[in-house]
Amino acid sequence: MSGPTIYDVAREAGVATSTVSRAFSSPNRVSASTREHVLAVASRLGYRPNPHARALLSGRHHTVAMVVSDITNPHYFELIRGAEMRARASEYTLVLVNAEESPRLEWDQIQRLAPAVDGFVLAASRLPDENLRQIADQRPLVLMNRELRGHASVVLDHVRGCHQIVEHLASLGHTDLVYLGGPRNSWMAATRWGALRSAALALGIGARRIGPFTPKVTQGGAAADAAINSGATAVVAHNDLLAIGVVQRLAQRGVRVPDDVSVVGFDNIFAADLCTPSLTTLGGPHADVGRAAVEILLQAAGTTRGLDPPQVVLPTELVLRGSSGARRAARG
Amino acid sequence: MSGPTIYDVAREAGVATSTVSRAFSSPNRVSASTREHVLAVASRLGYRPNPHARALLSGRHHTVAMVVSDITNPHYFELIRGAEMRARASEYTLVLVNAEESPRLEWDQIQRLAPAVDGFVLAASRLPDENLRQIADQRPLVLMNRELRGHASVVLDHVRGCHQIVEHLASLGHTDLVYLGGPRNSWMAATRWGALRSAALALGIGARRIGPFTPKVTQGGAAADAAINSGATAVVAHNDLLAIGVVQRLAQRGVRVPDDVSVVGFDNIFAADLCTPSLTTLGGPHADVGRAAVEILLQAAGTTRGLDPPQVVLPTELVLRGSSGARRAARG
DNA sequence: CTGAAAGCGCTAACAA
DNA sequence: TTGTTAGCGCTTTCAG
């Protein structure tokens, strides 16, 4: 089943097992000639260190777990990709966990994995703050798209981003916007709504929130109907999936986008550029979020628990496309 | 750092370590009362079994590695999702590896992971057959979207699917099709071309292949230009991404889809339904492919190497949308 | 610079 | 049914 061990190499090379171990783990504590010899024998035998044995003793597993709240959301692809690349650059393995929007599932999986990984990066975790603190007590933890006082995080600058959105809509003549809210336990949803509301206040336009909605295309129908009901001419959806569903439903109901209603989403997913009309949306360097989160985690794993964990905020960019336009007419 | 061990539990519960071990691993070999007692003490202490220690001894890691040739391709999301769900159902951990279209990277990662996982599922592997056999010698292996004699695999029925495509195009009056081929080392690309060609032959219409193209939207420009050059009125792109790029480029050049040219893709990704015109494409139960692959792997891991590994073929479905239509006019 | 030996946490004989 | 004990493969003191 399993291949040659350190003993086989040691015997074959005529040295002690500790020397073989050193040749791999701390090459500078072995003479160059023995190291070369050992490595040569090892590769001839096809020896590969057993990560479990190594982890058992050292407590370091060279593995980080990434938990995403819903793997089917295209938004996470970039996050995953960034995280995976950064992990691999340090020869770490990335374990992917899908929480399917269930806090319970998220918690169970994390607990199961905790003894086997060096740390967690959580994307848009749906867990309550208290649970996050418990996790952080066990393992290094970095949050993505969520902030929690005293804990490391990487987020996009939604305060500024939402301000940009409102400014954009206001400049187009809109005087009322409605936010189609995301899941109830989503930090992101709360943050977006807070930022939109204060921006609206500052710019002197009305803002209401409807929801919560599960951020999927299929939910767009209900969301669109509610939005129409509200009478607002500008709709900001919790994410692009929901926005796409809204646009589809509006078309179905004969409401023209952007002539009658402007629609703005979040995330700038791949499909935002393909749908008709294309979607105005708040994007950002999502892959960098994933990358940065793993980066922080790997540093934290080395250091003793820092007292001021980094809270990184990356800039957003408002991508203007076809779904937002000047307010044309009052609606009834 | 690490929590309580089996020793702590044993001492606290007044039993031997082996009893604690048994209470967790083989509950029926311990009396009900001791088991309950042990489990109670364990949970009071917050004990969690260390997977590494377990793996070290048993050789089973409760982990499967999934390798995808390019994680940014939305097609894989469903595969990943299915695989992840199936793995979790058996309390297995899914390690995700991105090969970024590089056989070299794919190989290295697999070798690194081999001693730490129970097996591999490879999605659209770009490795040569020989390498796949070497991997299968080390660990149980299941291929997705690729077949190799004597090895387990799960694929969609592209022979029938491609026949459907050609039939569809022929019934619309097309007499010539061009296939925009995928990567050179892609088994899928070769299979699709082979199936398309023989279907075309059988149905008495012409078929040519152009390429290879990297299956991304950005490659659609070059692919479209080449397709136009070929004079064919029907274009079958290696996948939906490429097809979307092609449609975009055709629009740019004033070629109408489907009036002047019909375009068909593969995979039925989420965006295929959103772009304009929407994309006719060959889809299938991708999540089931992922699910089935892991299922086979988990069974294989238990059994001694079966002599006839399963080669599962799942049905495709041709999804008719706006990008394919009746041939209207001859083109020059 | 190298070797001997003691574990890391757990499981699996073998006894009792 | 339960306890004792010997490792799984590796790292890491501690001697030499």
The fraction of residues assigned to DSSP E strands of chain A is: 15-25%
- The largest beta-sheet of chain A arranges its strands as 2-1-3-4-5-11
Instruction: Tell me the total number of β-strands of chain A.
Output: 12
* Oligomeric state of this protein: homodimer
Which structural class do the helices and strands of chain A define? alpha/beta
Quick one: CATH superfamily of the largest domain in chain A? Response regulator
Q: For the record, what CATH class of the largest domain in chain A applies? A: Alpha Beta
Q: At CATH's second level, what is the architecture of the largest domain in chain A?
A: 3-Layer(aba) Sandwich
Order of helices and strands of chain A: HHHHEHEHEHEEHEHEHEHEEHEE
- Rg of chain A, Å, rounded: 25 Å
Name the poorly predicted regions of chain A. Answer: none
Average pLDDT metric of chain A = 91
Globally, the shape of chain A reads elongated
- How many helices of chain A in DSSP terms? 12
Q: How many domains make up the 3D coordinates of chain A?
A: 3
Largest interface: A-B, 44 and 43 residues
